[in-house]
Amino acid sequence: MAEVSNATQSATQSATPADSVADVLVIGGGNAALCAALMAREAGASVLLLESAPREWRGGNSQHTRNLRCMHDAPQDVLVDAYPEEEYWQDLLKVTGGITNEPLARLVIRASSTCRPWMRKHGVHFQPPLSGALHVARTNAFFMGGGKALVNAYYRSAEALGVQIRYETPVDRIEMDGTRFVAAYSGAQRFAARACVLAAGGFESNRAWLREAWGQNERGEWPADNFLIRGTRFNEGVLLKHMIEAGADAIGDPSQSHCVAIDARAPLYDGGICTRIDCVSLGVVVNRDAERFYDEGEDFWPKRYAIWGRLVAQQPDQIGYSIIDSKAVGRFMPPVFPGVQANTLPELARQLGLPEARFVETVQRYNAACRVGTFDHTTLDDCHTEHLQPPKTHWALPLDAPPFFGYALRPGITFTYLGLKVNAHAQVHFGGEPSANLYVAGEMMAGNVLGKGYTAGVGMSIGTAFGRIAGTQAARAAFESKGAARAAA
């Protein structure tokens, strides 16, 4: 059965709850959920997918993605050179600070090397990286048309294969028999199935939960009140909270997330990639008091961009300002909003509402500390500062070529890392015991691999790997259940 119309869906929801609707129930509508649904259907299981969003907003955070981090031992189509397993692992180890499950992380890394042919089979197309993203041409495969095109391709393939899809169906609770899944509920509607995959995302759009996770700081502020939600508005963590309260084993720090510094003018929800400010490593970043607070040139931008949201969240009023001069123009992917422009530093400070004298002093002190060698933004070059705290380790050029540009920054939460503990079969655990027919994929379990930090494209790698595993395992569990029922009869 293809997509259910709103009218039919409403009529179905008001009908008597079905005793059983599918072999495999998939809860969620993003990349991980779709991978699970497609794999279960390919294995021969009947599949029902429940997406909380309306059709036009389907796809969760996956609609805002653009690439997948891929291990490869030699050049492959859109990927240049090689990106072997050990380098991928070291990159992940560095950004997480060691807070990761190595066997599960390596499972994801290895799976990333073999998933692209399967993705192509389901209509996903890849392209060489765009200008401004060439530094990840070796590590990341870019989707033609971005995440929205990927999501649409998967939905088309799912519909063609007979996956049933219901939109505007948020699941709020699960019925269990011990550690076995029995049914899911969306309001009064009950959905029974022989196996289930949970892939309903984190809790980033639940402001009350974010407030609870981040708490109140020493300045009396509630940092979460100033967060923008870079991802979907539909991830409120209702199912995640229910599962934890029902005894599912949890993993991860609720305050950790994929938290990016984005344009302060971005919308509250669904700003996506175009609101990210990518010029941080080409200039300096100051807080509301016009003081620098971190090394802007610590490492390549794809490995460090995701730390800046948390850094800004720790500043007064949860705001920062990325400052560049004309030398940086054309060297980064421009954001959707133009920067504030001025011909002098004092004028820029006034336009941004920063203390003028302090701002000028901060920039002049930085300029004087710059030791310019051979600038190359594609390498860890030798342009650095001396006798400056915090230092700028690479790409340190004086800000001396007007016009100057400034971008106000806010923390932008993409997805949260608190999730459910899993094993290599994507099974949900209760008191250390894996469920025989309940699985989890995507952001609801990403904290097993991402204890903190992020590197570009790894979220899609996790979702794709565990989505495919969960779908395969759920189909197997459903068939075993059918066989046991027949034998008992």
TrEMBL record:
Asked if Flavoprotein is a keyword of the record, the answer is yes
Where in this chain does the record put each FAD-dependent oxidoreductase 2 FAD-binding domain? 23-449
Which Pfam families does its entry note? FAD_binding_2
- The reply to whether Oxidoreductase figures as a keyword in the UniProt entry is yes
Keywords in UniProt for this one? FAD, Flavoprotein, Oxidoreductase
Q: So which cofactors does this thing need?
A: FAD
Against SUPFAM superfamilies, the record matches this protein to: FAD/NAD(P)-binding domain, Succinate dehydrogenase/fumarate reductase flavoprotein, catalytic domain
Q: Which PANTHER family match?
A: FAD-DEPENDENT OXIDOREDUCTASE 2 FAD BINDING DOMAIN-CONTAINING PROTEIN, FUMARATE REDUCTASE
Q: Which NCBIfam families match?
A: CobZ_N-term, PRK08274.1
Q: What is this protein called?
A: Tricarballylate dehydrogenase
